[in-house]
Amino acid sequence: MLKVLIIDDDADLCETYRDVLQADGYDVYAVGTLTEGLALLTGMLPKVVILDLNIRGNKGEIALILARKNTRMTESKIIIVSGYPERAQKAAADWGADGWMGKPVSPAELRAAVKAQVEGTIAGE
Amino acid sequence: MNETHTRLPIALLRQLSHDLRSPINAISGTNALLLEGGYGELNEKQTRAMQRIERNSKRALLIIDQFMTYARASAGQYDLVKAPFEPRTLITGSADALRSLLPADVKLTVSIAEAVPQTLMGDAAVLARCVDALLCNAVAFTAAGSICVAVSVPHPLTPSPQAEKENAAEATENTGLVIDVTDTGTGIDAEIEAALFTPFAPGAQTLTPVPSSGCGLGLALCHALAMQIGGSVELVSTSDSGSHFRLRLPYSQ
Question: What is the ipTM of this complex?
Answer without folding.
Answer: 0.74
